[in-house]
């Protein structure tokens, strides 16, 4: 299948993936790994799936430390073993909630961006970018 640029009619069209893979090289110097990209490859990088760490991280800290804060303000009937058991149960609940939140915190728009990137093409003659 020969692709043709819809703007200029040129057949010199490449996919974003092909441009990125041919123009990006990973190397290491003195034990440090680095990535070198051509200017064109840098403009067609694949989308990144980034977790929403700001809100999630804050809620994780609050969820994990809330049992200790709550237990410190509870009146004296929380003495001895009852307090220890309650702290363990609340802490376990905090860990569970935090894990559930982190798993569901992925960027919801990533699949659509990744699919669009896989269908994106670049004309090497007129620099037109288009989707198929």
Question: Your description of this structure?
Answer:
This protein is of the alpha+beta class and 132 residues long. Among the domains are: 13-46, no CATH class; 53-103. It contains 5 helices and 5 strands; from the N terminus they run βαββααααββ. The strands form 2 sheets. A 3-stranded antiparallel beta sheet has the order 1-4-5. A two-stranded antiparallel ribbon has the order 2-3. A hairpin with a 2-residue loop joins β2 (24-29) and β3. α3 (53-73) packs antiparallel against α4. The radius of gyration is 26 Å and the shape is elongated. 7% of the residues are buried.
List the SSEs and their pairings:
Elements: E1 13-15, H1 16-23, E2 24-29, E3 32-37, H2 39-43, H3 53-73, H4 80-103, H5 110-118, E4 120-123, E5 129-131
Antiparallel strand pairs: 1-4, 2-3, 4-5
* Uncertain residue ranges: none
Number of helices: 5
Oligomeric state of the chains? Answer: single chain
How large a portion of the residues is in β-strands, by DSSP E?
Answer: 15-25%
Q: Kindly report the spatial arrangement of strands forming the biggest sheet.
A: 1-4-5
> What is the helix/strand order?
EHEEHHHHEE
Largest sheet: 3 strands, antiparallel
Rough outline: elongated
- Separation of the first and last Cα atoms: 13 Å
State mean pLDDT (0 to 100 scale): 78
Give the radius of gyration.
26 Å
Binned, the helix content reads 40-55%
Number of strands: 5
Category by helix and strand content: alpha+beta
